[in-house]
Amino acid sequence: MARRGKMDILADILRAAEKGGNKTRIVYGANLNFTLFKEYLKTLIEKGLIEKNGKKYYTTDLGMDYLRTYTYLQEMMDTDEKNMNHNIISKIDSIRE
Questions:
Q1: In degrees, to the nearest 5, what angle opens at C-alpha 90 toward C-alphas 86 and 91?
Q2: pLDDT digits over 25-57, tens only?
Q3: H/E/C letters for each residue in the chain?
Q4: Which pTM was predicted?
Q5: Best label site of 1, 59, 62, 92, fewest CB within 10 Å?
Q6: Are the CB atoms for 63 and 20 separated by under 8 Å?
């Protein structure tokens, strides 16, 4: 399994909070421990990507913008990786011929 970076973890938390959730639900949804979650939560709140309403946390409109951008960039990177792999395989095939 690939190691998740900070941007991946932020996206996982925002996804888990899209429809609202308490800390426990978000921690499990983002596959984190409470210590890490508290660190990231502080950043997300300070940046306006997540907000608290009662005991629940919700992804804000700005947080949804982050998720859309993150997803777009991930898809772009996946496409580049697939193209790169295809090019490598094509070169290997041409060497064999």
A1: 120
A2: 999 999 999 999 999 999 999 999 999 999 999
A3: CCCCCHHHHHHHHHHHCCCCECHHHHHHHCCCCHHHHHHHHHHHHHCCCEEEECCEEEECHHHHHHHHHHHHHHHHHHHHHHHHHHHHHHHHHHHHC
A4: 0.78
A5: 1
A6: no
